[in-house]
Design goal:
Blueprint: H1 2-19, E1 38-49, E2 52-59, E3 70-76, E4 83-89, E5 96-104, E6 121-128, E7 133-140, E8 148-149, E9 164-171, E10 176-183, E11 188-194, E12 201-206, E13 216-226, E14 229-241, E15 244-252, E16 257-259, E17 276-281, E18 290-294, E19 309-310, E20 317-324, E21 327-334, E22 346-347, E23 352-354, E24 357-359, E25 366-374, E26 380-388, E27 391-398, E28 403-407, E29 424-428, E30 436-443, E31 446-451, E32 456-461, E33 470-475, E34 480-489
Parallel strand pairs: 1-19
Antiparallel strand pairs: 1-2, 2-3, 3-4, 5-6, 6-7, 7-8, 9-10, 10-11, 11-12, 13-14, 14-15, 15-16, 17-18, 18-20, 20-21, 22-34, 23-34, 24-33, 25-30, 25-34, 26-27, 26-33, 27-28, 28-29, 30-31, 31-32
The structure holds beta-D-fructofuranose.
């Protein structure tokens, strides 16, 4: 009898675990990618191949904190719904598999496939141990399902402890492979070229320039269209520097990148606290790059209160640039395919004039919303989401300073000492015909705000109380107007 009771007691944790199925946990994003369980960070090896989008990602297969870095793997037909696949790369010879990219070697320039009919996918990644980071290859001839290491690794080794995150693409004009790779402590991106993926020749360095406050990581060099000029393209260099991102816009001739944006100004793909290590799918069907970033921040990444998973990926964003004054600005649009997850919209008849506060007649913590805000002159106005008690997440516009801001100060933060330091973020935003166009995504613990058709983006994590699901428009006593209001509760991609 006693034994049975003991046995039953030991079973309790398992039974309790079984009560929360994966993807139904509190805080679990419903339409953002996360791994079923355990830690993830950077997206890796983004490639569209044979009708599938591959998402590899930094992953600890053994626990819910950073460690044993391997490449997790999932595939999708639409960048919305994902099928998890077995690990692609694991720790080997005592070396972790750090971030990198995957290319399709259609002409088998690497000779890694011994059959012409099956050209390889080649992963170029950093093998890491505490003494050395160098660039290695692995290849797959079965659509990325299984991977073999190249016997001649490393393919690029400078005997450095910090030298990582190779991002490779085929440069058609110069008919060679190009690698952008980070020299983190020097705050430089180095460019190498190759005809075989196996031998690499140094071409040039870019940096230090712009934000050099943290180590430089995860470069990505892409060509994107210019808004309104269908035949024109510009080169964009994305980099991450602990713990935010920045970009440069200009030209690339196969050897060197020329920045055309003012060198004294820092511009970022995302002004929120939680967007890092974003890289792109370069070879999408319409050839327009689509970026995906890790929604977290190294300052507190390991401490966020999520279990048995940690870390998620942003909504994939279609990229373009437009010229504003003397500056090229990155424009980001959430992929249209995500609209398939909208359920029937709630009708909110506008315009609504708001002097102080207006509470919307429904609640949600999993939705997409569009609103045009016409702020009163000199007002501070905007939208509060995750409202409950005196808690809320604020998305606001300061008309005097011409700044859009987000503020999570009044949301729970007790799980980390660092997290509160990143509570408020703002960036300059000019009104468009007296309006601030807001496109907001709230997904349990992730907020993404796109302003003025993707000119400015903020991504932030929040960990609200269970019933903090209210939504309010607010203004500071001056009358601001909210119009063209669209609201869709979102369905889960995991069902
Ligand atoms: C960026 C990063 C990369 C590195 C990886 C390790 O977040 O630090 O530079 O390859 O994470 O997990």
């Amino acid at each position: 009898m006693k034994k049975t009771v003991l046995f039953l007691l030991t079973m309790i944790p398992f039974v309790m675990q079984a009560q929360t199925p994966y993807y139904a946990e509190r805080f679990r994003p419903q339409y953002h990618f996360s791994s079923q369980k355990n830690w993830i960070n950077d997206p890796n090896g983004l490639i569209y191949h044979n009708g599938e989008y591959h998402l590899f990602y930094q992953h600890n297969p053994f626990g819910n904190n950073w460690g044993f870095m391997s490449w997790g793997h999932a595939v999708s037909k639409d960048l919305v719904k994902w099928t998890p696949l077995p690990l692609a790369l694991r720790v080997e010879g005592g070396k972790m598999a750090f971030s990198g990219s995957v290319v399709y070697d259609a002409k088998n320039t690497s000779a890694l496939s011994n059959n012409k009919e099956t050209p390889p996918l080649v992963a170029v990644f950093t093998a890491h141990d505490s003494l050395n980071q160098s660039q290695h290859l692995a290849y797959s001839i079965d659509n990325g399902r299984s991977w073999s290491r190249y016997a001649g690794n490393p393919v690029l080794d400078l005997n450095m402890t910090d030298f990582r995150d190779p991002n490779v693409f085929w440069h058609e004009k110069s008919k060679q492979w190009i690698m952008a790779v980070a020299m983190p402590n020097e705050k430089m991106i180095s460019f190498y070229s190759s005809f075989s993926l196996k031998q690499w020749t140094f071409q040039s360095d870019f940096g230090p320039i712009g934000d050099t406050s943290g180590v430089w990581e995860c470069p990505d060099l892409i060509q994107v269209p210019v808004v309104g000029e269908p035949d024109k393209k510009k080169w964009v260099l994305l980099i991450s520097q602990n713990s935010s991102m920045q970009y440069y816009v200009g030209e690339f001739d196969g050897y060197k990148f020329y920045n055309e944006n003012p060198s004294n100004k820092v511009v970022r793909p995302d002004y929120g606290s939680d967007y890092y290590a974003a890289i792109t799918y370069k070879n999408t069907p319409d050839k327009i790059p689509v970026s995906v970033g890790w929604v977290n921040n190294w300052n507190y990444a390991n401490e966020i209160p999520t279990n048995p998973w940690k870390g998620a990926m942003s909504i994939p964003r279609k990229l373009a640039v437009k010229k504003m004054g003397s500056e090229w600005v990155l424009v980001q649009e959430p992929i249209k395919a995500l609209r398939a997850m909208r359920s029937t919209g709630q009708v909110v008849n506008g315009p609504i004039a708001v002097k102080n506060g207006y509470t919307l007649p429904f609640r949600s913590n999993c939705f997409e919303m569009e609103v045009d805000l016409k702020p009163a002159i000199t007002s501070i106005s905007g939208i509060k989401i995750a409202v409950g008690g005196n808690r809320s997440f604020v998305i606001g516009y300061d008309a005097t300073l011409e700044q859009l801001f987000i503020d999570r100060t009044n949301t729970p933060s007790g799980f980390s000492r660092q997290y509160p330091y990143f509570a408020k973020k703002n960036a300059y935003l000019k009104q468009q015909n007296d309006k601030v166009k807001l496109h907001i995504f709230f997904d349990k613990s992730i907020v993404e705000v796109y302003a003025n058709d993707g000119e400015l983006v903020f991504t932030s994590q929040i960990f609200p109380e269970e019933n903090d699901t209210g939504i309010e428009f607010f203004s500071d006593g001056n009358v601001s107007v909210f119009e063209n209001i669209w609201f869709w509760p979102m369905r889960s991609i995991w069902k």
